[in-house]
C-alpha cells in the first residue's frame, strides 16, 4: 500500500469515526463528555494521515524500526487511553449509584415511619 492509499484510508477511518460519534451524539445515545473521548482518537488518526513525516520522525526518535510499528504502538496507546477514560467514568457512575441507593433506602424508611405514625394517630 503506497502512502496516498494509506493517507486516504486513515482519513476515511477518522471521518467515519467522527460521523458515527456525531450521529450518536445527535440521537442522544451518548453524552458530550463521552463524545469528546471518541473525537480525540479521530483527530489523532487524521493527524497521522495528514502529517506522515512527523510520525516518521517520531518513529526514529522512539526507536521504532518501521512506521507500521509506530502506528501499532500508537493504536495501543489510544486503546489504553479509551479504557482509562471509560474506567474513570464507570467509577464515577458506580459511586453515584451507591449514593442513590442510600438515598432511596432512607426515603423508604422515612415513608414507612410516616405510614406507621399515621396508623397510630387514627
Automatic annotation (TrEMBL):
Pfam families linked to this entry: DUF2304
Membrane-spanning intervals of the chain: 6-25, 32-51, 71-93
Keywords from the named record: Membrane, Transmembrane, Transmembrane helix
Name of the protein in its database record: DUF2304 domain-containing protein
Lineage, broadest ranks: Bacteria, Bacillati, Bacillota, Erysipelotrichia, Erysipelotrichales
